[in-house]
Protein: Polyprenyl synthetase family protein
Amino acid sequence: MSTDSDFPRWMAAVQQRTETALGVFLPPSSQAPTRLHEAMRYAALGGGKRVRPLLVHAAGHLVDAAPDRLDRIACAVELIHVYSLVHDDMPCMDDDVLRRGKPTVHVEYDEATALLVGDALQTRAFELLAEGQLAESPAAQLGMVALLAAASGSHGMAGGQAIDLAAVGHQLNRAELEFMHIRKTGALIRASVLLGARAGRPLADADHQRLDHYSKQIGLLFQVVDDILDAEADTATLGKTAGKDAEHGKPTYVSLLGLNDAKAYAEELLADALSTLAPLGERGVHLQALAEFIVRRSF
Amino acid sequence: MSTDSDFPRWMAAVQQRTETALGVFLPPSSQAPTRLHEAMRYAALGGGKRVRPLLVHAAGHLVDAAPDRLDRIACAVELIHVYSLVHDDMPCMDDDVLRRGKPTVHVEYDEATALLVGDALQTRAFELLAEGQLAESPAAQLGMVALLAAASGSHGMAGGQAIDLAAVGHQLNRAELEFMHIRKTGALIRASVLLGARAGRPLADADHQRLDHYSKQIGLLFQVVDDILDAEADTATLGKTAGKDAEHGKPTYVSLLGLNDAKAYAEELLADALSTLAPLGERGVHLQALAEFIVRRSF
Structure:
């Protein structure tokens, strides 16, 4: 288990610098089209645990990556995440009115604006990764763009969302549920870790494989915990509308395994993630603490 | 004026190879998530004049770019265009039921699928530009990704769409209408030309400036002609629902200038675009013919 007593301070610092960087990387709301830019900032700023930026910075710590590179990568990944939230919240998808304790974008603005906000946030994410110097070579940086795209597209996050939609009202088995979540949540979590690790000195193959395994385990962990949270928490604690999964007849780890077994599975994934990182020693301390943080946020 | 008698054959060949390349670059509908992939193919294949791919290939002709590079670039630009059509057609935007003579994606499938189709097509566009070798150096290729993003995002196409939305029911003056269209349609048209021109040997600065001016003029030309088409054509000819602009109270060049002056403006833009290209000689022949084609499709 991690003994990273500085973790809360490190986490707060990364969250703060991510907020600052997002503020810089998003167009000012004084710039035309002002309403779109205001809504993009509304969607992306002032909320969220910034789990993906934390993973980018924690993985970057392993390879001594320059913090300003990590800020840019973290914002790119976070903007992909935020775009997906804005679109998922829309009436034709999850129809959620509350996100991070605030009205969702289509409620605060309107549906057409929410659609464009998501579209433009995705574009900005790829623009961020294509600019500046984020890796040792432009070729490596092109690979980062491709990696983020693969994680976000129809074989990654958007594909997972499509499988999730198709699954409403159906009984999925555990393999099918895993297939969905590896894409829906896991792919972007994994990309966060791998992109952060590409921003500094090269990793040994064995360490890269450890990191990849860790990233897959915490991707699942994140979703299992999310399902537990949704089943247990009330709306005020969660900052978004609780119990929507059950209401929508969506399969979850809780509906499939039951609450106790879902919690046991989370502990198992956590233990595996932590032991995978152990050989990395002190350099992996933030990644270990983050795995624990993902679990601790619920139980 | 162009004397490119081979133009119809060249155009058909580019359209055909674009269709083939899109078929290869889009995930097969046999691959999970099958419904999403089927809908992505439904949206992108089997229709459209492929104006942007034609511009990519015509500009690539100027610099002797390899055709397989141009296919990839053409598909990236076309997928951005198709994603924007899918989202624009949704009920919360233009609420169109017909596109390229077929039911729109949200009608043929459902709204949630249309949302994800647009999202995933945009992602695939950036993935295409980040893979393969499209320019003389990876650094130049990163610049191509950034150029497409700038043309597509909140300062480009998506921004123009937002301005268009905000303008419904308002009277715009000519400068405001131009400001909108330079973004909404012009930015991606311009990107098509500039990206094609970056795929081969370097252009002299003066030629690059000519090309940039040409691309801006035909971007406007395209929109003016679109407005004329919408005002004049019936639904069957247009392959999409006609007269929607007037119905939605949207400002157009026709509503602002009147039909005759809009047509005169189109002729003026065409003449300017053609004379701009004249110093490029024979190599600019496809670009000249395309400018004429954009006008000829209506009157």
